[in-house]
Design a protein that fits this description.
Helix content: 25-40%
Radius of gyration: 31 Å
Low-confidence stretches: 54-76, 92-98
Strand content: 25-35%
Number of helices: 8
Largest sheet: 13 strands, mixed
Length: 312
């Protein structure tokens, strides 16, 4: 039980009598904001007063002379209840608001894939040069922001997880696995296990099942079903494809070899061509040679190390 605090009791009494007084409102609000203990105490006193005020008078056989409430109190009752409600709302907010998240920045500057562990034991795997902000303290809700690169979220428990990407897109999931690729043009999300809920200003809420890839651009979100786990090739090293569309394969090698492959409109029809190709343990030159042979097309390299797919 909370012990009486005379100074606060006196302030509350004055406040009850003159709830519209801005100075009294400010004094109560300041106590609430500065001390959670005082906030709980003020809340309990206001609740006790309100309950006492609305309880019906008990029937008794004794004649008891009761002091009537000052008439001014009844005159200001609407103001009083409104002001008390406002202060109690502030009290409840201060008492029960969550501690602000303290995010830790991490960039994988190593020459190999690295990972960080979340409080519930789940992992965030980062490709080389990938960068994130993440909360390493909250046990009941995981949180991260992907800044750049490829980042894989392996959520093994039912702990909710929120991931924010550029463009004000938000991903929510639990016991799922998904990859987020962030570049200068936007973000790409691939779900490999479970389900992920996507929301954002440029997209209605949508549930992404396993093997779904969604491209998040500034003004739109487009999704499609993949036949392979190609977006995870940077992590798994699996560059062997059987009857898979060239678009998936080109995306995979772009990330794994850290190169850019541009496809002009004249060559877009090649993206739908299905290939069976093994690119494991191949140098960049060997990989390009095998792709050209399988596509019956040419991959020209310019001075900025960008490849362009062109028809022969």
């Amino acid at each position: 039980m909370l012990q009486p605090i005379p100074a606060i009791d006196e302030l509350i009494m004055h406040f009850i009598q003159s709830p519209q007084d801005p100075a009294l409102q400010a004094s109560v609000a300041e106590l609430v904001a500065n001390s959670p203990e005082h906030a709980r105490y003020i809340e309990s006193r206001l609740q006790a007063w309100l309950m006492k005020d609305i309880e019906p008078a008990a029937l008794t056989t004794l004649t008891v002379k009761q002091a009537s409430r000052p008439s001014v109190l009844h005159a200001i009752r609407p103001w009083m209840l409104g002001a008390v409600g406002v202060v109690m709302a502030v009290v409840l907010f201060c008492c029960f608001r969550k501690t602000p998240r303290k995010l830790r920045a991490y960039t994988n500057s190593a020459t190999h894939i690295d990972s960080v562990r979340l409080p519930d034991g789940s992992r965030i795997v980062l490709n080389k040069n990938a960068a994130i902000l993440y909360d390493k303290n909250h046990q009941d809700h995981n949180y991260a922001e992907v800044m750049k690169g490829d980042v894989f979220f392996d959520l093994r428990k039912q702990t909710p997880c929120t991931v924010v990407t550029p463009g004000d897109y938000t991903l929510n999931a639990a016991a799922a696995a998904f990859n987020v690729h962030v570049s200068a043009t936007g973000a790409v999300v691939f779900v490999s296990r479970g389900k992920v809920t996507l929301s954002g200003k440029a997209a209605d809420d949508m549930v992404l099942p396993a093997n779904t890839l969604v491209t998040l651009e500034e003004k739109k979100a487009t999704r499609k079903k993949l036949a392979s786990q190609a977006p995870l090739a940077w992590k798994t090293g699996m560059l062997r494809f059987h009857n898979i569309e060239a678009s998936e394969i080109l995306d995979a090698v772009s990330v794994c070899y850290a190169i850019q492959i541009s496809v002009p409109p004249s060559a877009e029809k090649l993206l739908h061509k299905k290939l069976t190709i093994d690119l494991r343990k191949k140098s960049e030159r060997e990989m390009i040679s095998l792709l050209q042979k399988s596509l019956s097309a040419h991959l020209a390299k310019d001075s900025t190390d960008r490849y362009y797919l062109t028809l022969k």
